[in-house]
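This part of the workshop introduces the protein records we will be handling. An example says more than a description, so a record of this kind follows.
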Amino acid sequence: MENKNLSLIDRHQYLIGMAALITYTVAAWLSKGYYHPDEHFQILEFANLKLGKLSSQDLPWEYAAGMRSSFQPWIAYLSIKCLSLAGCLNPYLQTFFLRLCTGLFAVYSISCFVRSNLSVVAERLRLGYIFLSYFLWFLPFINVRFSSEAWAGLWFLLAVSQIPADRPLTATEWVKLGIFSGIAFLCRFQAGFMLLGLLGWLIVVKRISRKQVGWLLVIWMIIIFLGMILDRLYYGRWVLSVWNYFEANIVNGAAASFGTMPWYTFIYQLMTAALFPLGVLMFLCLLLVLIEDSKSILIWCVCPLLVCHLIVAHKEVRFLFPVVNFMPLLIIRGAQYSRMYMARVPLVWGGAPVPRVFRRVLVYAFLVIGICANCVALGTAIFLAPSYGRIALTQFVYDHYPTRPVTIYSLSKDEVNPFVPFAFLRQSFYEMPNVSQKPIDRYENLKKAMFDHDGVTLLVFRKYELDNPVLVNKLDQLKFQEVYNGNPDWALNIAGLYFDDLENGEYVIYGKKL
């Protein structure tokens, strides 16, 4: 009977996996641009340096400090170089390729992790666990990002997948565990806290021998040394990027200059970002697993990274992206323990016990509502381009005006012009030689004569600027209308129910009708 059930689960996992491949491919195509500037300026612009398309003076200060691992920039460089040699010079197709590879890698890593942990999940919850592992609403969006956080999480997930639940590791599994977790560290140095948690779990819970600990440490040292060689080839000098990162951000406090917050505010932000009540549910599940099964590998891998970021001054939600793929198993394990608590505590109403049929109706109603809410949030997250549609907008210009002279007017302040979102950083990867930027101080300075010339003239601003009556009057005078915005209105309206500033911050192009 058990074999028959496992066979059925295998078929379901195969079908869900196929659906995940399609979903993650769509997410990779629609999720144009970068969630956080580091995803672009610390990887793609670093790769652009090796491609000879900008100078080192145009890179962020982290380049001169030698504090970024060159592992992902080298992957981006080689991918873009090969695509260019094959005739694909479109930067948006090149970045889509990187996101697509990341998404496919995510589906593979999740599949390996699910198979390695399926036995610890109650039989009745296995199908739900498989579904959540791929389709928890924020996973496709995060798992197609060619970012250090996403890649560190996926490599670490693949590493943990090498640990069987019911037997010791083989020599091959030990090597894979060491290599994959070591690569996770190269992608993002903060993954070192996850590695320490994993090592502690192997020693305390798994009770591995000193020899096995030694071999694991040797593999990690080899990976770090290979990373140093890659950095030597990239920077042109020997650097210990992990130490430079620690010295700049922790010792010298560079990270804190980007903002600080207390630990309780960070927890609130995490719960809010995951959407209410799911964020609260995940924290409750974490506490339940911590209380009931403190020896769980989930606790040993998730908690060190969480505690680390609760302690440091500078905190961002994306810092916890490396552990998001552990959340489905954490939720399922928490559900198992909560069911145990519910069985111990009788549910009464008006002094009489509630019939079991009503309990089932209540549970099924909760599940239906949860599934519907997750599906709505999932669809919205997939269709929303990050950074308020910034790069989706530049792609629109690239696709519709590849050679015609284009003049873009925007306010002379940060994050208004999508081609030059930051005054102190050059976004060279998406630059177009036929596009010129014309900053203006005030919308009152817009004159009709500025647009009476050959070529295309566009006005770019953020939606919140439509509250300015001067701008609205100018648009009427110029007979300009909305040409494009980076995200569909329906997705913005749904997301706006949770995030008030999302729709108002959207980038918009106004101009003559195409």
User: Anything to note?
Assistant: The beta strands are 348-349, 352-353, 406-411, 435-440, 456-462, 481-485, 507-511. Residues 386-511 form one domain. The first strand starts at residue 348 and ends at 349.
